[in-house]
Design a protein that fits this description.
It is built from 13 helices and five strands. It has 420 residues and is an alpha+beta fold. The chain has a five-stranded mixed beta sheet with strand order 1-2-3-5-4. Strand 2 and strand 3 form a beta hairpin.
């Protein structure tokens, strides 16, 4: 039982005098400081009513009347959106409230502004009372503790001639006042800490906005992942095929080896440039001005096919220059991924490619013979076809890939007006 009582006493002491209690006391004092301009306005309003023009030397009704006028004024000013970020910053630093429980950014909805106003009013209301008590009670408590020890203090305090046993009680009364003040500070700080997540926490509108931001960030990460997958994956497949073919004829066809090495050099150089472009997007901080290269488009198809390591027959219809840049870039990546799939699964077998611009739509069809045996699936592979479908869907189109008779067919439809 003694150990339990000792533990409770230690917990009570930490609650009253611990570092968290001191920070919360500073938070309350800050609230008292924020109350002062409103309280001074309240003294002007309430002065004629109570017949006093000085709140500092006026009566208690004057002071508490000014306090009652100050709180509604503070509540009105806290309705402005910037009030919430300031309150949240103070609560995170001094109240000991986990940051993830509080909302970020200004309050824009009516519910968020109302909650912020309630918090600000509670903060400065409690802060004003605690600040006043912190200024008044400690000197009075010290005076009570010195009364039995100093006649000069009793004379200055104009204390009556108390019996000795009564004088002996004054130090205990002073200590009790200080402990009561510490308990009030701890209770007020704990109350603010409990109310902070309710009044400064995210509203449903804030949660919806945060979810939309996360969705946007996820879409951007997925887009960059597709860029890396298509660019680097295609380059590695082409380089692997060219290097394997060159190794087989190294001693018999020097000219072919020379051409293969040149193709490998050109492919890696182009891929490094595209990789720098994607990394530039990753490094660019939010809101930073400037543009970053967005990658090749349909006008670079000839170079892509010449370096693919595959015999490709291209049939084009319509004006590819009229295709909007976002659609043109996505179409290039779709063709690139289709060639990569053909290279991985069908070897160096011929590929047929049709690109047609018809009205307000771009169609891409690619066919290659099915492999004679099941292709080996790479660990972590299988994202290429899904990436093609995602690219088409972002533009409002669709894409499908799969066996069609004795060939593997990829078909994509991209609306020219769906770029965004």
């Amino acid at each position: 039982m003694t150990e339990r009582a000792t533990g409770l006493l230690r917990a009570w002491t930490r609650a009253l005098f611990g570092s968290r209690a001191r920070l919360r006391w500073l938070h309350l004092v800050l609230g008292g400081a924020l109350l002062m301009p409103y309280w001074l306005v309240g003294t002007v309003v309430i002065g004629p009513i109570v017949g006093s023009d000085n709140a500092f030397t006026g009566s208690l009704p004057h002071q508490f009347g000014a306090y009652a006028v100050a709180l509604p004024l503070a509540a009105l000013t806290a309705l402005f959106p910037p009030a919430r970020p300031l309150s949240v910053a103070a609560a995170r630093a001094l109240c000991g409230v986990p940051g993830q429980l509080l909302a970020d950014g200004p309050a824009h909805s009516r519910a968020a502004r109302g909650r912020t106003s309630a918090w600000f009013t509670l903060h400065i209301g409690l802060g004003g009372l605690i600040s006043g008590a912190s200024l008044a009670l400690p000197p009075f408590a010290v005076t009570l503790m010195l009364l039995p020890l100093s006649g000069a203090v009793r004379e200055w305090f104009r204390a009556p001639d108390y019996p000795a046993w009564q004088l002996a009680l004054f130090p205990f009364a002073g200590i009790a006042m200080l402990v009561a003040l510490a308990a009030c500070v701890a209770a007020a700080g704990a109350l603010l800490a409990r109310q902070a997540p309710l009044l400064l926490g995210p509203t449903p509108a804030d949660r919806l906005a945060a979810a939309e931001r996360r969705a946007t960030e996820l879409a951007e990460r997925n887009r960059l992942a597709r860029e890396l997958h298509d660019s680097v994956g295609h380059a590695l497949s082409a380089v692997t095929l060219q290097a394997g073919a060159a190794r087989k004829v190294l001693d018999t066809d020097v000219e072919f080896v020379r051409e293969a090495l040149a193709a490998i050099e050109e492919t890696t150089r182009r891929t490094v440039g595209e990789l720098d472009s994607v990394l530039g997007l990753l490094r660019r901080s939010e809101g930073e001005e400037g543009t970053v290269a967005t990658g090749p488009a349909l006008d670079a198809l000839d170079g892509l096919m010449s370096r693919s390591g595959l015999p490709v027959s291209l049939t084009a219809e319509g004006d590819r220059a009229a295709v909007p840049p976002p659609v043109s870039r996505e179409a290039y990546r779709i063709v690139q991924e289709g060639l990569s799939n053909a290279l991985r699964h069908a070897g160096a077998r011929p590929v047929s490619l049709w690109i047609a611009v018809r009205g307000e739509e771009l169609e891409i069809t690619m066919e290659n013979p099915l492999p004679s045996r099941a292709a080996t699936v790479r660990p972590g592979g299988g994202r290429g076809v899904r990436g093609i479908a995602e690219r088409a869907a972002l533009l409002g189109g669709d894409a499908h890939a799969g066996p069609h008779g004795d060939v593997w067919r990829l078909h994509a439809r991209l609306p020219l007006g769906g770029a965004r």
